[in-house]
Amino acid sequence: MITLSEMQALEIIAVEDGSRLGNVLDLEIDADRGQITALVVAEQSGGGFFKKQEERLIQWEHILKIGSDVILVKTES
């Protein structure tokens, strides 16, 4: 089992090209079914001191593996 705080420390990596997508910011949960539907990912855009944080949703079915140091996801359909 893994907690949200543990997930937030993991990097999210796209398996297609090995790019770093960001870190888990939050979870999207279907309260009626009691299931996680997506990860809310904090992406950094821009450079230097003026980095802007964007949010991106990664659907739960696109998560391939939650490892000890990374989360591997499929970004292309």
UniProtKB/TrEMBL annotation:
SUPFAM superfamilies, per this entry?
A: PRC-barrel domain
Taking every annotated instance into account, which residue ranges of this chain make up the domain PRC-barrel?
A: 2-75
Q: Matching InterPro entries, A to Z?
A: PRC-brl_dom, PRC_barrel-like_sf, Spore_YlmC/YmxH
Q: What is this protein called?
A: YlmC/YmxH family sporulation protein
Organism field = Aciduricibacillus chroicocephali
